[in-house]
Amino acid sequence: MGQRYKRRKYFIHPSSQLKYIAFSVIPALLMSLYCTYSLIESGKLVLRAAKEEPLVPVYSIRKTILALEKEGYTKDTATKMTRMRREVESLTKTLETTYSDTLTQWDKTKRTIFIVLFCVLVLVGLLSLVFSHRIAGPLFRIRRCVDMLVEGKDMPPIRLRRRDEFKELAASLDRLRIVLKNKGLLESE
Questions:
Q1: How do residues 96-141 score in pLDDT, each as one tens digit?
Q2: Distance between CA 132 and CA 60 in Å, rounded?
Q3: Partners of 187 in the β-ladder
Q4: Contact yes or no for 148/44 (Cβ under 8 A)
Q5: 126 vs 15, 20, 32, 108, CA distance in Å?
Q6: Cα(32)–Cα(144) distance, rounded to whole angstroms?
Q7: Whole-angstrom distance, CA of residue 122 vs CA of residue 80
Q8: How many helices and strands in the chain, by DSSP H and E?
Q9: Residue 72: Cβ-neighbour burial (10 angstroms; 0-12, 13-18, 19+)
Q10: Nearest partner of 120 among 20, 18, 33, judged by Cα
Q11: Confidence tier at 1 by pLDDT (50, 70, 90)
């Protein structure tokens, strides 16, 4: 089994790793902001419709009741009209309460969207960091071995992790080391 070690540094080559992370996070951020903006704007339209559309018939009924009351009816009809007016007012209050509840729920939904967006962006950043190690780690080891070869020193074989990139380059560098060692151009440690 391969030797496991605890990572001491999270950034092996900060400039390239930060670029890699930025190129991963920025598109996700821009796409998320656009989708969130579109969702919120469409939500505003839905909320406006939810407030206005149910009240249109109520206003029409209220207007009809007022017009009928002006015509003068019997006491029994006037009582019925008064009761109908109260029912319309009750319906109006119920619709306003429902709309208020809808606004509260929409606010909760928006908060949830922003929390999920933040969590996704953090996750994308962390995954980018992990995947950047699969590139930066091997390049760091390969550069260190090339420096040793330039100084004429023998180097140990390059061992890369199972999911690391540049395994072919490491194998080529190891073959170069063997050729240089066989020609006697490297100092043994």
A1: 898 889 889 999 998 999 899 999 999 999 999 989 989 999 999 9
A2: 65
A3: 153
A4: no
A5: 16, 11, 17, 27
A6: 40
A7: 63
A8: 4, 0
A9: exposed
A10: 33
A11: very low
Q: What's the per-residue H, E or C state across 71-92?
A: HCCCHHHHHHHHHHHHHHHHHH
pTM: 0.66
Task: Tell me the Ramachandran region of residue 122: left when phi exceeds 0, alpha when psi lies from -120 to 50, beta otherwise.
Answer: alpha
Tokens 């066989």, located at residue = 182
Tokens of 124: 């994308």
How confident is the model over 3-32, as a mean pLDDT? 82
Q: How many CB atoms lie within 10 A of CB 141?
A: 19
Secondary structure class of 104 (helix, strand, coil): helix
